[in-house]
Amino acid sequence: MGRIYDFNKPYTQYLVLRKELREQQLATQKNQQKQIEQTEKLIEKFRAKASKATMAQSLIKKLDKIDRIEVDEDDHSVMTLNFPISVNPGKVVIEAEDVSKNYDDKQVLDKISLLLERNSKIAFVGQNGQGKSTLAKCIVGEIPFTGALKLGHNVEIGYFAQNQADYLDGSKTVLDTMIDAANEKNRAKVRDILGAFLFRGDEVDKYVRVLSGGERNRLALAKLLLQPFNVLVMDEPTNHLDIKSKNVLKDALIKFEGTLLVVSHDRDFLQGLTTKIYEFKDQDIKEYLGDIDYFLEQRNIQNLREAEMRTITNAKSKEHKSSSKESYQNQKKLKSLHNKLSKTEASITKLEKVIKEIDFELSINYDETISKPNFFDQYHSKKKELEKLMENWGVITEQIDAIH
Asked: Can you name the residues that pair with 130 across neighbouring β-strands?
């Protein structure tokens, strides 16, 4: 309603507080409305008597000055999403053997082999640049590679690229984009599909170039539904989506009866969605037969960012060990830098844990926590210390890179 509210709470706590505040608004509005109705009855009563006319005018002025309480309305407009399966494919949908890919002198994938079965739900995780999106592009036939990659019987792939929204033509309207992508069978359903993705009324006449990032992603998802598929490959599909839309997408993917392969850094999105994890590291992949929580447990880490940090460190350590041409001075310097890196990462993990505990205290007892002496000074000091440690971590890794 034209205002911004700052809730110093985690999202789940915010939802509870938001509900309580709205209930308070409704109760206050109800009481105010009763007072207004009583005042209006008095005004009507006094108007009928000449001796009370002055009092009636006084009440009218009082009523005009009342600041009417407005209740914040929740936005319940979320897209409705359902991925229908086209035809039932064979038991094996994708079979890759010795798939390799390099960009000029940089080897990204080295003799990757995997077999994906019908109805499996798989996540690709790992540090940027380790080949997750590359293998996804190999599977959908977007880029050349060496090795063998075979699609199973009746396999029809739907592909949502990380930059899918960039492929949309800015000079077209939302409606024209969909009509041009439709065929004779589904062209009549275009407006219904757009409506399900919150493009209603005049919004279908908007040009793509004026859409926000979230609107573009919604349009790209809507366009995806115009093609038949039973295998869905999605590369970072939650980019630019708001929380409600992300949850709708996740629910639709859980219900999807086909095979799902999703590339993502989003732990919350992956929880309960996939049943097998492939971690990409050092031009190879490692399989984990479980969900994202099982993967993190096996790797003994708290989050995916920590996994990516370790990937960088381990990769640099391997290069250090395997290089026989480095001078003694470089080896000595590298050892010192790796020690610094390990200590910095340990400090980061420790400080993140402390800040997480403080955030938890704030979420369960906000008033008591902030009443502690110098609380905010100490809290912000820890945040700044963490930022400094992260900067140091980046500087140290750059120094290691420079030696290599």
From this structure: none
Distance of alpha carbon 217 from alpha carbon 387, whole angstroms: 31
Question: Cα–Cα distance between 318 and 229 in angstroms, integer?
Answer: 41
Per the confidence metrics, is the pTM higher than 0.70? no
Confidence of residue 327 (pLDDT cuts 50, 70, 90): low
Distance from C-alpha of 78 to C-alpha of 90, rounded to nearest angstrom: 35
CB 203 within 8 A of CB 174: yes
The stretches of 49-119 forming alpha helices (DSSP H) are 53-65
Give residue 231's pLDDT.
96
Placement of tokens 């592009």 in the chain: 137
CA–CA distance, 151 with 140 (Å, rounded to integer): 9
Instruction: Give the model's pLDDT for residue 320.
Output: 44
Q: How far apart are CA 165 and CA 177, in angstroms?
A: 12
Cβ–Cβ < 8 Å for 143, 101: yes
In sign, the C-alpha dihedral spanning 356, 362, 368, 373 is: positive
Contact 205, 173 (CB under 8 A): yes
Q: What is the mean pLDDT of residues 159-175?
A: 88
Which single residue is written with the structure tokens 């205002």?
Answer: 3
DSSP string, 18-42: HHHHHHHHHHHHHHHHHHHHHHHHH
Q: Which residues contact 120 (CB under 8 A, 6 or more apart)?
A: 93, 259, 260, 275, 276
222 close to 164: Cβ distance less than 8 angstroms: no
Q: Which CATH superfamily is domain 92-300 in?
A: P-loop containing nucleotide triphosphate hydrolases (3.40.50.300)
Question: Strand 231-235 to strand 106-117: parallel, antiparallel, or no bridges (unpaired)?
Answer: unpaired
Residue 291 and residue 298 in contact, taking contact as beta carbons nearer than 8 Å: no
Which amino acid is it at 141? G
Q: Residue 315: is its pLDDT beyond 60? A: no
Q: Is 375 helix (H, G, I), strand (E, B) or coil?
A: helix
Ordered DSSP codes for 147-172: EEEEE-TT--EEEE-TTGGGGS-TTS
pLDDT level of residue 317 (50, 70, 90 thresholds): very low
Residues 6 or more apart whose CB falls under 8 angstroms from that of 42 comprise 56, 59
DSSP state of 197: T
Q: How confident is the model at residue 336 (pLDDT cuts 50, 70, 90)?
A: confident
